[in-house]
């Protein structure tokens, strides 16, 4: 899944402006211009679209954790991490303080069945014998369920 889709989903989910997205990246220790952020949130077929880089996405995810949960000054700052689908899933889980049961019920409401064991495999470190890569469709369903949870019923 491309980084731009995740940023657009979070923006819609939280109903925040591009200015707030720039602030979130800054909270994560990154720098991005307003013009660049505007290009990131455009659809792929719109003129001016620009693909969001790995570094900006990593900083955005870290900043989102600080934005949602606050920054604990007694802990070291979060370092940049290559934002694979598994990392995106893990960081969103931390930012929105989700438990396994929350994720399973969100996915279940979208018709995506997953067991607790399968879910825990997605949060393991790459290289662990039970690690499982997170697919694009799984991440899309997760984002859709998270959006429904955050925005509430229509």
Q: What structural category characterises the helix and strand content?
A: mainly alpha
Number of helical elements:
8
What is the approximate shape?
globular
- The value of Rg in angstroms is 15 Å
Any idea how many domains? 2
End-to-end Cα distance: 27 Å
Round the mean pLDDT to the nearest integer and report it: 92
Number-wise, the strands total: 0
Stretches where pLDDT is under 50 for at least 5 consecutive residues are: none
Strand count, sense and closure of the main sheet? none
The amount of helix comes to: 55-70%
Question: How much of the polypeptide forms β-strand, as a percent range?
Answer: under 5%
Order of helices and strands: HHHHHHHH
The gist of it:
The chain has 154 residues and is an all-alpha fold.
